[in-house]
C-alpha cells in the first residue's frame, strides 16, 4: 500500500466516524425556568433542571439516560443525586 492510499483510507475513516458524532449544545441561557424531569434508566428518580436547555444537553451528552419531562417548575421531591443538574453550564 503506498502512502497516498494510506492517507485516503485514513481520511475516509475519519469522515465516516465524524458523521456519527452528535453535536450537543455547550452553553444554555442563564434564564431560570426550572423543569422537573424523571429519569427512567439507568436509575429511577426525579430532578429539577435549571431550564429545558440544560435537560436537553444532559440527554444529548448521556443518551443512555432516559429523561421524561414531568412538569414545568421544580419537582416536589427530588432524588439525592440531582444537585449537579441545577448548574447552567455543568
Tell me what you see in this structure.
Strands 2-1-3 form a three-stranded antiparallel sheet. It has one domain. It has helices at 3-19, 52-61, and strands spanning 35-41, 45-49, 66-72. The longest helix has 17 residues, at 3-19. It is 30% helix and 21% strand. The protein has 90 residues and is of the alpha+beta class. The chain is built from two helices and three strands, in the order αββαβ. β1 (35-41) and β2 (45-49) form a beta hairpin.
Helices and strands, with pairings:
Blueprint: H1 3-19, E1 35-41, E2 45-49, H2 52-61, E3 66-72
Antiparallel strand pairs: 1-2, 1-3
Keywords: Signal
Organism: Glossina brevipalpis
InterPro entries: Kazal_dom_sf (IPR036058)
Cα radius of gyration in angstroms: 19 Å
Q: Label the overall shape.
A: globular
How many distinct domains? 1
The number of helical segments is 2
| Mean pLDDT score | 76
Distance between the termini: 46 Å
Number of separate strands: 3
N to C succession of SSEs: HEEHE
Helical coverage, percent range: 25-40%
The main sheet orders its strands as: 2-1-3
Protein name: Kazal-like domain-containing protein
Keywords: Signal
Signal peptide: 1-18
InterPro entries: Kazal_dom_sf
Give descriptors for this structure.
single chain; alpha+beta; 3 strands; signal; 2 helices; 90 residues; Kazal_dom_sf; Kazal-like domain-containing protein
Amino acid at each position: 500500500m503506498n502512502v497516498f492510499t494510506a492517507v485516503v483510507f485514513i481520511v475516509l475513516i475519519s469522515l465516516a466516524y465524524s458523521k456519527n458524532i452528535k453535536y450537543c449544545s455547550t452553553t444554555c441561557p442563564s434564564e431560570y425556568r426550572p423543569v422537573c424531569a424523571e429519569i427512567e434508566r439507568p436509575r429511577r428518580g426525579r430532578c429539577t433542571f435549571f431550564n429545558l436547555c440544560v435537560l436537553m444537553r444532559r440527554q444529548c451528552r448521556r443518551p443512555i439516560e432516559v429523561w421524561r419531562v414531568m412538569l414545568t417548575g421544580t419537582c416536589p421531591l427530588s432524588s439525592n443525586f440531582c444537585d449537579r443538574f441545577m448548574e447552567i453550564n455543568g
